[in-house]
Specification:
Layout lengths: L4 E3 L6 E3 L1 E4 L9 H13 L4 E3 L18 H10 L7 E6 L14 H15 L4 E6 L8 H13 L3 E7 L3 H14 L4 E5 L13 H8 L2 E5 L30 H5 L2 H17 L3 H10 L6 E5 L3 H8 L8 H11 L3 H14 L1
Parallel strand pairs: 3-4, 3-10, 4-5, 5-6, 6-7, 7-8, 8-9, 9-10
Antiparallel strand pairs: 1-2
Bound molecules: NADP nicotinamide-adenine-dinucleotide phosphate (NAP).
């Protein structure tokens, strides 16, 4: 098993093609289990770790005061390994009950980065990402605050998550006009059940040499085959532990048709579905890194076992025929399910 390094967008930075996502730390798994997951990831050659100031909170997502546990656990566990890894975190989500405890105002960004640095027990963040587009704060205000952090040495690179292509284009335009550091990466969702970014965001990222760091490559676990259509999530899964975002995926029959259609391809190769799903993402030339989530060390060792092999053009075409056609319909279904929730 070997994990390659890839160039991070147009920058000189190198990151592993699989990153470790730590949303589970302090939310679904405690510090000692998180330590096993982290050790396994670093031993396997992963050098890129993604967290966020809002990750943690146990399973009670309604209590913003308890966010930050994922960063705290990472700060406790990394020790001298901190300087060997590329550490990414995020700002935007609500982290307290006061009106300014969220968003991308200059006020909140500066407070949030200080809190993240303290929890992570480090004096710099390699990649500081805005978690989503902030419709209430002028982009110029956020970009100037982020640029200050880079100039102060607290942050090395900035990136954006959950942005549409037009939002990234607008932000890049403002950065260029004002001579500010620009977003060097995007972090969208991308997997065999979520291919919407292929329409606008990936072409834009290619044209501007933006790093593409994608989340939920296993469809939050659905693409491992562990869930059944409209059935209660299996014991021990995140779905059973209360992850709200799995629910609309489980109610969408299309996802299960995809899983069924992928099974013969995985079987033919002697791979598990998790291996096929992750290797498919890593085989996309435009993907810089796929952020894998794990609640146990075996999730990492199993999922990454085939990433070095990549998929052939014929296999990619076979999978396209199964998954590509109707992603607009799929996105519309997800949006209407989210609106009802
Ligand atoms: N920017 C954003 O808005 C955003 C949103 C979501 C995630 N993220 C980032 O992306 C990371 C990954 O997201 P994700 O956890 O949803 O990704 P994922 O890789 O699609 O799902 C990970 C889950 O799949 C299951 N799994 C993994 N390997 C497995 C295996 N070999 N066999 C069986 N099950 C396996 C585990 O589920 P169980 O724990 O249920 O067993 C694990 O928690 C997060 O940690 C976070 O850093 C960012």
């Amino acid at each position: 098993m070997s994990i390659s390094l890839k160039k991070f967008g147009r920058t000189g930075l190198k990151v592993s093609e699989v990153a470790l996502g730590t949303m589970a730390f302090g939310r679904w798994i405690d510090e000692s289990k998180s330590a096993e997951v982290l050790d396994t990831a670093l031993d396997a050659g992963i050098n890129f770790i993604d967290t966020a100031d809002v990750y943690g909170k146990g399973t009670d997502l309604s209590n913003p005061q308890e966010s930050g546990q994922s960063e705290t656990i990472l700060g406790n566990l990394l020790g001298s390994r901190r300087n060997r890894i590329i550490l990414a975190t995020k700002v935007h989500g609500r982290v307290g009950n006061e009106p300014n405890d969220q968003g991308q105002s200059r006020y909140h960004i500066i407070r949030a980065v200080e809190n993240s640095l303290r929890r992570l027990k480090t004096d710099y963040i390699d990649l500081y990402q805005v978690h989503r587009f902030d419709r209430e704060t002028p982009l110029e205000e956020s970009l100037r605050a982020l640029d200050d952090l880079v100039r102060q040495g607290k942050v090395r690179y900035i990136g954006a998550s959950n942005y549409a292509a037009w939002q990234l284009a607008k932000a890049h335009g403002i950065s260029a006009q004002l001579g500010l550091h620009r977003y060097e990466s995007i972090q969208p969702e991308y997997s065999l059940i979520a291919r919407g970014i292929e329409q606008e965001l990936l072409p834009f990222a290619a044209s501007e040499q933006v790093g593409v760091v994608v989340y939920s490559p296993l469809g939050r676990g659905l693409l491992t085959g562990k869930y059944e259509f409209n059935q209660a999530p299996p014991a021990g899964s995140r779905g059973a532990a209360g992850e709200a975002r799995i629910k609309p995926l489980l109610e969408n029959e299309r996802n299960f048709h995809i899983v069924e259609a992928l099974k013969p391809i995985a079987a033919r190769k002697g791979w598990t579905l998790a291996q096929l799903a992750l290797t498919w993402v890593v085989s996309q030339p435009q993907v810089t890194s796929a952020i894998l989530g794990a609640s146990k060390p075996q999730n990492i060792t199993e999922s990454i076992a085939k990433v070095a092999e990549k998929l052939t053009a014929d296999e990619l075409a076979e999978i396209d025929a199964i998954t590509q056609g109707d992603f607009n319909v799929y996105n519309a279904l997800r949006e209407s399910a989210a609106a009802k929730a």
